[in-house]
Amino acid sequence: MPQRPPDDRSQDLLKDLNPIQREAVTYGEGPLLIIAGAGTGKTKVITNRIAHLIASKMAGPEEILAVTFTEKADNEMEARVDLLVPYTYSFVEISTFNSFSVTSAWPGRRTRAWSSMPSSKRAAP
Q1: What are phi and psi of 63, to 5 degrees?
Q2: What is the pLDDT of residue 124?
Q3: Residues with Cβ < 8 Å from 125, sequence gap 6 or more?
Q4: Residue whose C-alpha is closest to residue 17's, from 25, 27, 7, 6
Q5: Angle between helices 71-84 and 42-55 in degrees, nearest 10
Q6: Domains of the chain, with CATH numbers?
Q7: Residue 38 has what DSSP assignment?
Q8: Could you tell me if 10 and 52 are in contact, meaning their C-beta atoms sit under 8 angstroms apart?
């Protein structure tokens, strides 16, 4: 992918991060696995990294996949990315492991299966 000039927002995304979080957000090319305890800022790091990758032109939204364990974390990440990334760039794939597995194995099936399932049978977020 050709390198495009970075956008000024990439530096704004780093200002409220501690040094370890900043290092994770600005990590070079390739996949990054974040493992940390509760309340350490994992969601902040991941969402700021997504926004940083897009703002610095290191990746396009369609090249980013963020996977988490719970729907609560999935929804939180999507909401934060929506605030950090301009609307036209907000097509980042953010999903739970379970949902990503289902949609990868059977494209288009999740929507039909989920919408036809009685709400009493759905897993609580």
Answers
A1: -100, 5
A2: 46
A3: 70, 71, 72, 75
A4: 25
A5: 40
A6: 9-118 (3.40.50.300)
A7: T
A8: yes
Average of pLDDT values for 85-106?
80
Which residues lie closer than 8 Å to 6 by C-beta, 6 or more apart?
55, 56, 57
| Max CA separation in the chain (angstroms) | 50
Q: Which residue has the tokens 């700021």?
A: 48
In sequence order, the 6+-apart residues with CB closer than 8 A to the CB of 90 are 61, 81, 82
- Rounded to whole angstroms, the Cα distance separating 8 from 79 reads 22
Count of Cβ atoms closer than 10 Å to residue 77 Cβ: 22
3-class DSSP state for residue 66? strand
Which element (helix H / strand E) includes 17? Answer: none
Residue 28 has pLDDT above 50, yes or no: yes
DSSP symbol at 93:
E
